[in-house]
Amino acid sequence: MENKNWLVGLIALVIIVTVSIIGFSKLGNKNSAINDNRAVSGVVSESFFATDAKVMLFYSDQCSWCNKQKEVLARLAVEGYRVKPMDVGADQSLWEAYKINGTPTFVAENGDRLEGYQTDDKLKPWLDAHGSKQPAEQVNN
Question: What tens digit of pLDDT does each residue of 58-69 get?
Answer without folding.
Answer: 999 999 999 999
